[in-house]
Amino acid sequence: MSLNPIRPWRNIERRQSRKIMVGNVPVGGDAPISVQTMTNTITSDVRATLDQVIRAADAGADIVRVSTPDVDSTVALREICRESPVPIVADIHFHYKRAIEAAEAGAACLRINPGNIGDAKRVAEVVKAAKDHGCSIRIGVNAGSLEKHLLEKYGEPCPDAMVESGLDHIRILQDHDFHEFKISVKASDVFLAAAAYQQLAAATDAPIHLGITEAGGLTAGTVKSAVGLGSLLWFGIGDTIRVSLSADPVEEVKVGYEILKSLGLRTRGVQIISCPSCARQGFDVIKTVEKLERRLEHIKTPMSLSIIGCVVNGPGEALMTDIGFTGGGAGNGMVYMAGKQSHKMNNDQMIDHIVELVEKRAGEIEAETVKAAE
């Protein structure tokens, strides 16, 4: 729950869901909303897949999903799971035996698609494997692969059909006394996905995995995901998210965190507040922000930094950030620390100086956190 007694209009009351574990990551209940991505390497190439998993984890991914379409993939999964710094979800389509093999290989979670995994008997075998090896399960309903009988019943993919599919498979898991599951009802259409997720949230207390599937490239997919996931998260729906982009998985993680950060649901790294720039700017805001984003990627400590081109909004934004820089005249700008004017700095030296200030402040915050814990 995100509650702000000073600014109540920023409150988000999260839907109450059950908590499950995906490896060592809690999902649902009062756990932080976790960020996921998925590898796009050939899974049987262990080194390439692990490298991508590690890069995603360094970017902040809590959980990484890996496709397991064949036996070579599930064989490779054993080493991938053993060496991964984060829990691995095995993505299963069509071949239920791959799910059993993935559970045996050490997957923390099995993602199964009700529309193509097979009959209830096969699902029962997957459930047994999950129980035997301590896996959770994600029921992954997709608008593009609904069961034939539901398409015949409803005529087309719709919220009712998607939720009915999900609830049918929840019952199958519960009939086998299996409760360590989460569920998703994804669609590439934002309206369809949002309506299905709202209906699902009212029908079950299972943790919900949010996603707008096949959202598109980096720019279009980011916008579509921000609209769809952002609106659902704003209304308290969602326990774990994946932004689906035709892009590097690291970009999915970055976008996912930015969505959560914009709603005050997760904080990680430096949040840069910057202006779009105009003729009043005292320095090149756009290039400065681009350089600072690259130079500050290694900072994991939650911090805020304002980079504003002129004094119209600069001082006001600096009041609400840990560190700020506002453009002035004669090639200089003003540095703000904790909302207060601190000192002037030459524009040519400003980037290096701000990086030093951020690194120093991050160290201080970490030290204060450790001291408070002790």
List the topology elements.
Elements: E1 20-22, E2 25-27, E3 34-38, H1 46-59, E4 63-67, H2 71-83, E5 88-92, H3 96-105, E6 109-112, H4 120-133, E7 136-142, H5 148-154, H6 159-175, E8 181-186, H7 190-203, E9 209-210, H8 218-234, E10 240-242, H9 249-262, E11 270-274, H10 285-295, E12 303-308, H11 314-318, E13 323-327, E14 332-337, E15 340-346, H12 350-373
Parallel strand pairs: 3-4, 3-10, 4-5, 5-6, 6-7, 7-8, 9-10, 11-12, 12-13
Antiparallel strand pairs: 1-2, 13-14, 14-15
Helix pairs in contact: 1-2, 1-9, 2-3, 3-4, 5-6, 6-7, 7-8, 8-9
SSE order: EEEHEHEHEHEHHEHEHEHEHEHEEEH
Low-confidence residue ranges:
none
Largest sheet: 8 strands, parallel
Q: Between the first and last Cα atoms, what is the distance in angstroms?
A: 26 Å
**Beta fraction of the residues?**
15-25%
Whole-number mean pLDDT: 94
Number of strands: 15
Number of helices, counting only DSSP H or I runs of 4 residues or more: 12
Give the structural class: alpha/beta
The helicity comes to 40-55%
What topology, given as strand order, has the largest sheet? 8-7-6-5-4-3-10-9
Rough outline: elongated
Based on CA atoms alone, the radius of gyration comes out at 23 Å
Describe it:
The chain is an alpha/beta fold and 374 residues long. The chain has 12 helices and 15 strands. Strands 8-7-6-5-4-3-10-9 form an 8-stranded parallel beta sheet. Strand 3, helix 1 and strand 4 form a beta-alpha-beta unit. Helix 1 packs across helix 2 and helix 6 runs parallel beside helix 7. The chain is elongated and about 75 Å long. 45% of the residues are buried. The mean pLDDT is 94.
